[in-house]
What we know:
The chain is mainly α. The chain has helices at residues 2-51, 66-91, 99-117, 128-137, 142-165, 174-213, and strands at residues 53-55, 58-60. Strand 1 (53-55) and strand 2 (58-60) form a beta hairpin.
Amino acid sequence: MVSNEKTAPTDVDRQWFIVGRWQEYEGETRANLLRIIGIAAFYIVELANYHGVRLGVFEMPRVVEKPFHQSVTALAVAWTLMSLVILYCLSHRIFPAVLKFVSTACDVALLTAILVMADGPKSPLVVGYFLLIALSALRFNLPLIWLATAGSMAGYLVLLGNAKWFDESVRVPRYHQIIFLLALGLSGIVLGQVIRRVRSLAKDYAARVESNRGAPS
């Protein structure tokens, strides 16, 4: 009896680990697809900002210069290449546990690099940090959500530091900074609670299925 009681939780944890790894793989696949779509969408906006768009009532005047456009293009290409490497790994069933952490860290670093060259904390592109936190939840891995949240908050602090010491023209009021950091942190906490509830939901469902097997129909 003692042996069975010790074995059961271990087996449950093992099964959860196997299921979790499959979900991480599927989540990484979806996250990478969304990453590629996001890069393409934002780069189209960058092209519109660089060349200008005039389509009747819809107009986007040219607002960026060639050096900035070239720098953003280089980072977009690097980001796309990273996505293609991940796609290659996934298509060949190369999926080490560290891959999701590396890809998320690269996402945060590349987004921060683009924002440093742009308008820093004043740029509307700062909402990309929320997208990165949301993407981390697709892998159903709590430590990854912590990494994405902490990394996004650190990236935003880098933008604030850059604005304070190198380019005061892009500084934002203190209450903007606090609200944005709080929003990033709370987003990570909420998504973390969702992931915790998923395991509880799976356990409750499995328990009900098991209890109803022997019940008369």
